[in-house]
Write a structure and sequence with these properties.
By secondary structure, the chain is of the alpha/beta class. The protein has a domain of 182 residues: Rossmann fold (3-Layer(aba) Sandwich). Helices cover 33% and strands 26% of the residues. The chain contains 10 helices and 10 strands. The strands form 2 sheets. A 6-stranded mixed sheet has the order 6-7-8-3-9-10, sandwiched between helices. Strands 2-1-4-5 form a 4-stranded antiparallel sheet, with helices on one face. α3 crosses α4 and α3 packs parallel to α6. The N and C termini lie far apart (39 Å).
């Protein structure tokens, strides 16, 4: 994939242009135009069933793992449409990593959880240094440095989620997608994940789906609000902008009603 940014000044990490995603005959999201700024945290919010996770997964072709799914339109990453037939989806997922709602460490040691992705992708450098750096960036090193050979499944839920973030970081992505990464965690672990996202945003572009309005307001620089088109129940992008403006002066009444809890 090309390393040339899409826009002249490189401000956008990824751009959705006329994006439609279908599951069989059902159109889950339609006509999405969304430009995600580089090295910022963007939150995707909206009511249940409006296509938030579908849009997120469209950014690294994860929807293709669903047999009935197909995508129309473009998703441009560094000037390349990732849906072009010449583009390898495995390569896309190396560059655009995913952290899921429920922590999913492998049934391997903490060390091997971090090293695994880098190893299968042909990493030839100093693996010990890579594991250290990835765990350090994920704010986990101090907690696990003396038990690297213990199972990743032995960690607490919040630690497991940070281990999954370290595993994602280890393959050196440009973008980290997070689908409700703290929804299964207690408030203290949630706060640690939020702090970690803010620390990582200087080096990575982060896109997070969240149902938690307070979380979106706390951690994100930009917010995209999706809702359902009443005519066909497809998810549509209602409004996108700087989070402070979206939460204090939304342009759309529908956005205001959702943020203030009047619907959704």
């Amino acid at each position: 994939m090309s390393n040339t940014p899409t826009s002249a000044d490189g401000q956008y990490a990824i751009e959705a242009l006329g994006l439609n995603v279908y599951y069989g005959d059902f159109r889950a999201v339609k006509d999405v135009e969304l430009r995600i700024r580089r090295h910022k945290i963007t939150a995707i919010i909206g009511p249940s069933g409006c296509g938030k996770s579908t849009v997120l997964r469209a950014f690294n072709r994860m929807n293709e793992l669903v047999p009935t799914a197909h995508t129309e339109g473009q998703v441009r990453f560094n000037g390349v449409d990732i849906y072009d037939p010449s583009v390898d989806p495995v390569r896309v997922r190396q560059r655009i990593g995913m952290v899921f709602q429920k922590p999913n460490p492998f049934p391997k040691s903490i060390y091997e959880n971090v090293a695994w992705g880098a190893r299968i992708n042909g990493f030839k450098g100093d693996m010990d240094a890579l594991v250290y750096e990835s765990l350090h960036q994920a704010a986990l090193w101090d907690e696990v440095k003396d038990k690297l050979q213990q199972s990743g499944l032995s960690l607490s839920g919040g630690q497991q989620q940070r281990l999954c973030i370290a595993r994602t970081i280890a393959v050196r992505p440009d973008i980290i997608l997070m689908d409700e990464p703290a929804s299964a965690l207690d408030p203290i672990a949630t706060l640690r994940i939020e702090q970690l996202m803010q620390e990582l945003s200087s080096a990575y572009t982060i896109i997070i789906v969240t149902h938690n309005m307070q979380q979106a307001a706390r951690v994100s620089d930009y917010t995209a609000f999706f809702s359902l088109d009443e005519a066909d129940r497809a998810g549509v992008l209602i409004e996108y902008g700087e989070t402070d403006r979206m939460f204090t002066r939304p342009a759309s009444r529908v956005t205001a009603d959702y943020i203030t809890g009047r619907f959704g």
